[in-house]
Amino acid sequence: MDIKVNQDTVIVFDLDDTLYNEMAYLKSAYINIAKELSPTNWQGLFARMYSLFRSKQDVFEFLATQFDVQKSDLLQTYRTHKPSLQLFEGAMEVIQRIKEKGGKIGIITDGRTTTQTVKLTALGIYEMVDKIVISEEVGSEKPDEQNYRIIENAFPNCNYLYMADNLRKDFISPNKLGWNTLGLVDNGLNMHFDGHLYFEDSHRPQNFVTSFFEINIV
Description:
Elements: E1 2-3, E2 9-13, H1 22-37, H2 42-54, H3 59-67, H4 71-80, H5 91-100, E3 104-109, H6 113-122, E4 131-134, H7 135-138, H8 145-154, E5 159-164, H9 172-176, E6 180-184, E7 207-209, E8 216-217
Parallel strand pairs: 1-8, 2-3, 2-5, 3-4, 5-6, 6-7
């Protein structure tokens, strides 16, 4: 898919499950917590934690009971640890190409400011992003139009494209606002996988790709 980029182009990305798999963040946090609670057998504890998560059980309640720790402390560690993350293959090349062509890079993501900032830093792209919109910081979550209008106000009179993965909430507002929209197909590891419920026009992006290798910045 060809995407024309110049100085009047703003390419905006969702973060979780669009630039990397959010499951990698969860695993990184679980391993960090397991090593703190059971240094000599963290692998076994991690295996149990991950199985509990996959079974939709309360992992932190289990840990709080088993290890006599505060659930709030566990959640704080989860949200603030320094994760080990990697961008999807081809993503860095697309981002670099956008910058080379004079385009602007934006991020619109839901979550906590500290957590999402840590993720962007771990992925090595924080300094490359021209505008970051995080729900906790602005006080509204997608699909609120405000989150997208912040980008428009920062870069007025531009051509906007939003690339994301979650059909339930990601594309409603940019579709209304006349942005171009691009969906990244779930690679089988996404946290949210109920996109089949939201294939009406208002929720669906204009185009889909299965990987960043299908994007050609021209």
